[in-house]
Every structure is written in C-alpha cells, then in structure tokens.
Amino acid sequence: MDIKIEGNPGTGNSFTEIHIGTVQNYNPNATTVINYNGTEGEQQKANQAKPKTMKEMLDQDLIDTENIHKEILNYVSCIRPLLKDEWKDKYMQLWEDILNIKEVEEKVYDPGKQKNTNFNRKLVAAILHFLDSRKIYKEAYNATAITNALEGDWEHSVRRELAGDPPEDVREAIDKLLKDKYTA
Question: H or E element: which one contains 160?
Fold first, then answer.
C-alpha cells in the first residue's frame, strides 16, 4: 500500500504504516492497529534530558522543596509537647537548620517507595532518634509516644524507624551543627 503524504514532510522523517488484521492478546476487538515509529535518536535525547539523581532533580528545581520543607516542619512540630522546656523555643529553628544541611537536603526530599508522604519519613524519624543523644525529650526516649504524636497511631510503621540512626554523613553533619550552634 502506498502512503500518500500531502505537504512537505520535512527531512529525516520516516513513515511506516503497519496494518494487523486481528490482535489476539492486545485487544480482541481491534481490527486495525497503526504503529508510529519516530525518527532515530528521539528516545535517546529524551532519556538524556531526564535527571538521574535526586541531586540533579534538586539542582533543576523539579521538586517543590518549599512546600515539602513546610510539610516536614509541620510533621516534626507534633512532638513539641514531648520536649524539655529549654528545647521548646529553639526546636523549630533546630529543624530549619537541619533541613538546610547539604547531606540532609540531598536525602530528605526523596520519599522513595514510602506511601502517603512527599518526604523521606524514615530519615526524619532516624534524625528524631539521633536527637535523643542531646537529651531534648522530657522523659526517657519513647518511640511509641513519638509515633503516636507524629502519626496519631502508635502502631504506625514509622515507629520502627524511630529506633535507628540516620546515615553516618547525616549524623556527623547534625552533630557538627549541634556543637557549633546549640551547645549550652
């Protein structure tokens, strides 16, 4: 069958017409399927344009970090009643500073496969556990109480994450921040 092209099709374009009588496993009611194959190199160009890492996505402003930042602050503010009095006033500033640490910023805006969140809730929980080393909580560290304050459900999966520390580079950066700015 001849393909009839009206007008100027341009250069470097290829046109292919494929007719299939019946497609059993795609759609049993289909009588005609027409595939379009683009020119060579289109897919490679599209793949090259996509950012491959979270750092590249942050650099290209593909993530709404401002709203996610607010969401994280709102999330961690839920445990303020569990804090010692001397930490209540500086707690939110501490989290502002933590979220501005390069090592945290590279990881916290990537929720991965976590459901119902726009940020890395596991990392935030691990940081909350790590902050226990600064004795910021009124009573002995209690992951169940913190889980209940954060999620409203003491059985939430974040409770498991409240038992571990963040990655070493994040721990070191937060420890440096605490020593430099929050030493009493």
Answer: helix 158-161
Tokens of 132: 């226990």
pLDDT value of residue 69: 87
Closest by CA position to 133, among listed 165, 167, 86: 165
Backbone angles phi, psi at 152, to 5 degrees: 75, 15
What number of CA atoms fall less than 13 Å from residue 87's CA on the CB side? Answer: 20
Residue 175: CB atoms within 10 A of its CB come to: 13
58: burial class by Cβ within 10 Å (0-12, 13-18, 19+)? middle
Q: What is the largest CA-CA distance in the chain?
A: 84
Q: Tell me which amino acid residue 28 is.
A: P
Q: What is the pLDDT of residues 56-78, one digit of tens each?
A: 655 555 566 788 889 999 999 99
